[in-house]
Write a structure and sequence with these properties.
By secondary structure, the chain is α/β, with parallel strands linked by helices. It has helices at about 10-20, 35-40, 60-65, 80-105, 145-160, 205-215, 240-245, 260-280, 290-295, 305-310, 320-325, 330-340; strands at about 1-5, 25-30, 50, 70-75, 105-110, 125-130, 165-170, 175, 185-190, 190-195, 205, 225-230, 255-260, 300. The chain has a 7-stranded parallel sheet, sandwiched between helices. The protein has a 3-stranded mixed sheet with strand order 9-10-13.
């Protein structure tokens, strides 16, 4: 297959490019500058075409889509205010879908997020799956959750109306080289780590495992018109995962545990104080917003049974192997691309 990959230069995107090549596909990588291609070793690769485009503008997008069999849509804005994230995620997706229609491309794998779930409605210690409740609008949470929710609805509506094939993948916490910590654990300093909660499972998916799921979904019949969660087989508790990270630190930091119940009471007290004393207008840290705290640290479990039924995917790397690969001086997956150029 020939695959267009948006967000190809991102943390996840580079591994999706590598996995697509490993499976024998041809890749058209959407990037913003030639420097991205040079830095990644893609400039002279025989199986990588480069598409210079900005998804926030429609100019040139149809040409970028033309001739591909499917689009793997990873690009999204993760920072900035609502306008920046809406433009980089929702408007970008709308522009891409319009370009696909003009180029007659009718299959898309769109990458969403676990952020769309309504963690306030999910019962304690229950299992989150594809049928768990999602947010109505997520305005109380944050800009990222809201824009990913709108993006999902846009893709599903657009593809259903046109009888296209879509797959929405919701990865959990994608971790890997340079991205081992998560807000689901608490706050990380150089010498002190504040761990909020202990027994909540962390829905980890190692970046190479996640990339394999994304590429596999592009031509799997079982993934057609499906929403699927992507998590690895091992979803350790916060306590265990922080212990594993600490063990791999040259200078082991001090871990300060904060019980989830205490954090929950504090967040609700802060919410009441903000409402009564500040009219609800005060900006408070995310950990003191109950809906955000629940999304990060509520004691829950996670499953990958749905995606295993839908596509031929099993996480290739265990948790221990994933951590070792993340901390290795040699990145085997990305080095393989440069070597083939």
């Amino acid at each position: 297959m020939k695959l267009l990959i948006t967000g190809a230069n991102g943390f996840l995107g580079k591994y999706v490019v590598a996995e697509a090549l490993r499976r024998g596909h041809t890749v058209r990588a959407m990037i913003r500058s030639a420097a991205d291609a040079e830095r990644n070793g893609w400039a002279d690769h025989p199986k990588i075409e480069l598409a210079h485009a900005d998804l926030r503008r429609r100019k040139g997008l149809a040409d970028a889509c033309r001739g591909v069999d499917a689009v793997l849509h990873l690009a999204a804005a993760k920072a900035g205010d609502m306008y920046a994230q809406y433009g980089g995620t929702v408007v970008a997706t709308e522009n891409l879908l319009a370009a696909m229609e003009e180029a007659n491309v009718r299959r898309i794998v769109s990458i969403s997020s676990f952020s769309v779930y309504d963690y306030m409605k999910v019962p304690y210690f229950s299992t989150v799956n594809e049928f768990s409740p999602v947010e109505a609008d997520a305005f109380d949470r944050d800009e990222y959750a809201h824009t990913k929710l709108v993006q999902e609805r846009l893709v599903r509506m657009w593809c259903t109306e046109r009888n296209w094939v879509f797959t929405v993948l919701r990865p959990g916490v994608i971790f890997g080289r340079g991205n081992l910590w998560s807000a689901r654990l608490g706050a990380k300093g150089k010498r002190v780590w504040l761990r909020i909660g202990a027994w909540a499972r962390v829905p980890l998916t190692y970046v190479e495992n996640c990339a394999e799921a994304i590429v596999a979904a592009a031509d799997a019949d079982g993934a057609k018109n499906q929403i699927l969660n992507v998590v690895d087989d091992e979803t350790p508790t916060q306590r265990r995962y922080v212990a594993l990270l600490r063990k791999r630190e040259p200078r082991r930091p001090l871990v300060v545990p904060v019980p989830y119940s205490l954090a929950w009471l504090t967040a609700n007290a802060a919410k009441l104080f903000n409402r009564w004393a500040c009219g609800g207008k005060a900006k408070v840290p995310g950990v003191l917003v109950p809906s955000r705290l629940a999304a990060r640290a509520k004691p829950l479990r996670y499953t990958n049974a749905g995606i295993k039924r839908a596509i031929p995917w099993r996480p290739r790397f265990t948790l221990a192997e994933s951590l070792d690969r993340s901390l290795s001086s040699h990145d085997a997956a990305l080095t393989a691309i440069r070597g083939a150029a």
